[in-house]
Amino acid sequence: MSKDNCKQTTCQENSYANEILDWMATEEYKEKNFAREALVINPSKACQPYGAMLCALGVDGCLPFVHGSQGCAAYFRACLSRHTREPIPLVSDSMTEDAAVFGGQANLVEGLRNAIATYKPSIIAMFSSCMAEVIGDDMKSFIANARTQGAVPEDFPIAYGNTPSFVGSHIIGYDNMLKGLLQSLADTRQGKWTNGRLYVVPGFDLYPGNLREYKRMITAMGIYMTMLPDPTEALDSPNTGEYKMYQPGTPMAELADALNASAFLFTQKYSTAGTQKFVKNVQKINSEAVTMPVGIRNTDEFLMTLHKMTGKSIPAELEAERGRAVDAATDAHQYIHGKRFALYGDPDLLLGVVGFLLEMGGIPVHIVCTNGNETFHKEMDRLLASSPFGTEGKVYLGKDLWHLRSLLMTDPVDMLIGDSHGKRLAKDAKIPLARIGFFLTDRVHLHRQPIIGYQGAINLVTMIANMFIDEYDRNCPDERFEVLR
Ligand code: SF4
């Protein structure tokens, strides 16, 4: 092919590609895209074991253990490492083709023996990948057999949770593992006696900054608490020059005593639904679940719930923080008020962030929740209906980021809010992406800064308002380019 021909072909190819791209931004393409049934493109979710791993990392001395394929374990470790930039301990019993045919018991027994001998954990939290669930492996009896065969000491604590990846998502896996930890390792409740502790369950939250903020606020109220699980240090450990496989988490003694809690507070509703039922309905423990405290109103509700549950008053320190958050929101409201947003992510996070946007006068338009359910849909609709800024908001359950692309192209917004997976959409739609959510793999340290509580509200206002100001500075005409904004 001659150079000229080549140029001509490239030119034709480019023009054809541009034609396709233009068509992909039309209502006609959107309709076809929304009619697709047999294909998912870039869903905003991970599989169940991923959530189970996070839960397991929050227990002191605990080794997360995947009963299933080695590749799955590598994927979970890599994904979390890329978000946190920390080494993540996780082992698997490396089931392969023969285990898929004959069952994974031999792998599980040998895996436990090796893991205990090599990595010397205090506890193992086991969960399953697709393969083990498809063939119906019974982890409970396999673990019992491992003890009988002497692969595991009789009294060595092992919890397990079934985490079939072909249903649900990482938030269900987190919930299943947490319930599994309580069912396997917590002592029986001692009648009406309590240990006087409030057990705070943060839910699927990959921001160590959030976890530290919960503990700071609750401790400031003088409440005697245990965070369960507590992966703060696993997600953000100090660099001391010495590798420690196990970072401090919820102490085993406090996990064992969990069912004697004076009460449980769940700061996410949808990633802990099964554990809430177990604690409240089965164990009859006083418990409350609040909307993730993102924004001022949700933080108020969180603190007032703590007050109601414990009788402790809200200290002046937190009142002053609230005042600073209101001040920050007021000073920056003009940059966010009236701006249109598209969001995607987990149900608990979306409820929190949409609540925050509404109180800033932002207009949530497209809300994509791949892993939300009908209860979430109704709750989000109620939230949107509670504000004059919520009238344009529409929830898309079970949809993915390719659906969201069509929405952005046919009904544009000013900003996209979500995790790093949305960066291509934001680029195509020529709008900024505010990186809020899980997983943040293409920016550094965002997970260290809280987005919950009053301090989190200040951080969100700062991030979003400054992104709009940056956009304006980049695109405004010369005569509008000012030092003052
Ligand atoms: S979906 Fe199944 S195969 Fe894929 S990583 Fe999750 S557990 Fe492994």
UniProtKB/TrEMBL annotation:
Binds 1 [8Fe-7S] cluster per heterodimer. InterPro entries: ChlB/BchB/BchZ (IPR050152), Nase/OxRdtase_comp1 (IPR000510), Nase_comp1_CS (IPR000318), Nase_Mo-Fe_CF_bsu (IPR005976). It catalyses: N2 + 8 reduced [2Fe-2S]-[ferredoxin] + 16 ATP + 16 H2O = H2 + 8 oxidized [2Fe-2S]-[ferredoxin] + 2 NH4(+) + 16 ADP + 16 phosphate + 6 H(+). Its EC number is 1.18.6.1. GO terms for molecular function: ATP binding; iron-sulfur cluster binding; metal ion binding; nitrogenase activity. Signal peptide: none annotated. GO terms for cellular component: molybdenum-iron nitrogenase complex. Its cofactor is [8Fe-7S] cluster. Keywords: ATP-binding, Iron, Iron-sulfur, Metal-binding, Nitrogen fixation, Nucleotide-binding, Oxidoreductase. Residues 47-468 form the Nitrogenase/oxidoreductase component domain. Transmembrane segments: none annotated. Belongs to the NifD/NifK/NifE/NifN family. This molybdenum-iron protein is part of the nitrogenase complex that catalyzes the key enzymatic reactions in nitrogen fixation. Tetramer of two alpha and two beta chains. Forms complex with the iron protein (nitrogenase component 2). This is Nitrogenase molybdenum-iron protein beta chain.
